[in-house]
Amino acid sequence: MNILLFGPQGSGKGTQAELISKKFNLYHLSTGDALRSEIKNDTALGKKVKSIINAGSLVSDDVINDIVLSKYKIISSDTNYKGVIFDGYPRSYEQWVFVQKHFKIDAALEIHIEDEESINRISSRRMCTTCGKNYNLMWLKPKVDGHCDIDNAKIIQREDDNPIEVKKRLAIYHSQTAPLKIEYKKIGILHVINGNQSIDTVNDVVSKVLTSLKK
Ligand code: AMP
User: What pLDDT is stored for residue 214 in this prediction?
Assistant: First the structure.
């Protein structure tokens, strides 16, 4: 079972992808996390994409498609996983063309929130500097102030989570990523979920959709 999970910044797709991947034995493939790991490890690719990400722009389709395909090849030979949850991919029409050529997709799940809510949520989002776990100072606080629950490392605000870049990323989301909904609808895989609900409620709705796919 391969799932696309998308929504604007702060919609909670990373959190839901984490929960759902565990529940349904899916590999959580986040292109954003993959790129941040390249930056953290100071690889040649990391050096190339750092300024693009911090400016809130999209990394080129070729780079992203290569990352996804090489990860997918490794995952598909691992019997621990029953499929993949693509988090934050595809984000452009070209990426969607690539997806159709290489993967069978069972559902595309949109976690819908309005822009105003997205901007509010992002201002209080924090991320662990070591494991990348997301927190929110409003409703998903760490147990110890400023430190990750998993590894006790410092939690910080992402460089691309400042108001200027967030607005830019939202504009890109509306012009390039959200229009893919038309494509998903055409082939009957689109499910829209109200993201203005608690994490548990959104998770229940997402779980019901995935369970119905297995029948
Ligand atoms: P995210 O963690 O999903 O918010 O992604 C963080 C940043 O990584 C984005 O703002 C883009 O710069 C880059 N990125 C992540 N996924 C993609 C993608 N599918 N296509 C292009 N750029 C991406």
Answer: 72
CA–CA distances in Å: residue 19 to residues 42, 60, 125, 205, 209: 29, 29, 18, 12, 14
pTM of the model: 0.90
CA distance 92 to 95: 5
> How many whole angstroms from 140 Cα to the centroid of ligand 1?
22
Name the residue of 31, 121, 125 to mutate for ligand 1: max ligand atoms within 8 A of Cβ: 31
Task: Measure 157 CA to ligand 1 centroid, in angstroms.
Answer: 16
Which residue ranges form the domains of the chain, and what is each CATH number?
Answer: 2-113+178-214 (3.40.50.300)
Tell me the per-residue pLDDT of 106-142, one tens digit each, with 9 for 90 and over.
999 999 999 999 999 999 999 999 999 989 998 889 9
